[in-house]
């Protein structure tokens, strides 16, 4: 037991409570589209933001004062104690971590590995005792200077090797802890300048690397899903996993489209010039929608600020796409969100998650109501109804420019444009959010 969260009671669903540390909308047992809300949303805490982030920004260092900050195994265990206490206070079913978040870096790879294994055993006992699950594990291959020119895409084959050994250790850890997924986010898999970069080689290296990850997953019998998390830039000027569409063509090229799905992050979608729901709809169309990282960016700064979500209409459209595919299977809602650097108190950490969970619960319920009502699907189907007629189907299947041209002349086809009804659809959405 730590005393970090002393005085903070477990957060309960109580819409009438005057406290900002209770759930007003997140009711884990409420049934939404045939499943308990907890099982639809499958929330996870991001270990890095909640327990490893020190409050720094490019102009100033640590603002947070946490008793577990430091490089020893004892402090890593104290951090784990506090983390599992927070999961229990929030009733969070899952968490996610990078190797670097949970163990001190060793002087050698072997020492880092043994630190990781010791913490994994420590986590294992706590997970068993509390029932908390691991949504996903991942490797941090972007913070240490050895990864400054990339991990799998590095010009130095020794860094590729170090990265392969690192991913093996993190996949082993995830497997041992019963993780539901394994994530690869390539923050340094990209370039700063084309002047020193061989795009063709780097793409080949990344493809081979991913094939090795998938082979190893099968070898050890890991039943979770391998997920790629797209992001267009930051920290690299340009990242290869730019967006869902880019990653899908990469998967096709390396024969991995049936093996790997997407972990889509709200803020990354925005950085790519898309909306969150666009990226989700795209992934769903390709059959590769896996999991989500839930946050929001500051819309003025244009930077990946990883703030807790607070915009119900946006979140509703995201869950609409997820529910339309039948909901999560191995995936879930990971709060890849961090406190602002002035939010120093333990209560702030709880409040950030409580508010975010309530926003997601409202979004989920709105999305379910829209789907059950069916208004959007009906409007969309009506818009394309011409393609369901015999003539429409036949033209697409068998038409040639000549045969179609002959029909246009013969039937005197002279189409009248029809309204896209965007305002009416936007008003429709507003009835639910
Ligand atoms: C970075 C980001 C990462 C990944 C995991 O923008 O989102 O935290 O989610 O490496
Ligand atoms: Co993320």
Description:
Helix 6 (157-176) runs parallel beside helix 7 and helix 10 packs parallel to helix 11 (312-324). A hairpin with a 2-residue loop joins strand 1 (31-32) and strand 2. The protein is built from 16 helices and 14 strands. The relative contact order is 0.11. It is an alpha/beta fold and 433 residues long. It starts with 30 loop residues before the first strand and ends with a helix. Helix content is 47%, strand content 12%. The protein is globular. The strands form four sheets. An eight-stranded parallel barrel has the order 3-4-5-6-8-10-11-14, surrounded by five helices. A two-stranded antiparallel sheet has the order 1-2. Strands 7-9 form a two-stranded antiparallel ribbon. Cobalt (II) ion (CO) is lined by residues 185, 229, 265, 293, 336.
Largest sheet: 8 strands, parallel, barrel
Q: What structural category do the secondary elements indicate?
A: alpha/beta
Spatial arrangement of strands, main beta sheet: 3-4-5-6-8-10-11-14
Mean pLDDT: 98
End-to-end CA span: 41 Å
Gist of the model:
This protein has 16 helices and 14 strands.
Supply the key terms.
two-stranded antiparallel ribbon, 16 helices, alpha/beta, 433 residues, eight-stranded parallel beta barrel, binds D-xylulose
What's the layout of helices and strands?
Blueprint: E1 31-32, E2 35-36, H1 37-41, E3 43-46, H2 47-52, H3 73-90, E4 94-98, H4 99-102, H5 109-130, E5 133-138, H6 157-176, E6 181-184, E7 190-191, H7 199-220, E8 225-228, E9 238-239, H8 244-253, E10 260-265, H9 266-271, H10 276-286, E11 289-293, E12 296-298, E13 303-307, H11 312-324, E14 333-335, H12 346-373, H13 375-383, H14 390-398, H15 401-411, H16 422-430
Parallel strand pairs: 3-4, 3-14, 4-5, 5-6, 6-8, 8-10, 10-11, 11-14
Antiparallel strand pairs: 1-2, 7-9, 12-13
Helix pairs in contact: 3-5, 5-6, 6-7, 10-11, 11-12
The structure holds D-xylulose (XUL) and cobalt (II) ion (CO).
